[in-house]
Amino acid sequence: MTDDALLTEILKRSRVVAVVGASLNPVRPSHYVARFLVQQGYRVIPVNPGHAGMMLFGEEVRARLADVDAPVDMVDIFRRSDAVPEIVEEALEHLPHLRTIWMQLGVVHDGAAALARARGVDVVMNRCPKIEFPRLLGDAGL
Question: Which residues form the CoA-binding domain (predicted)?
Answer without folding.
Answer: 11-107
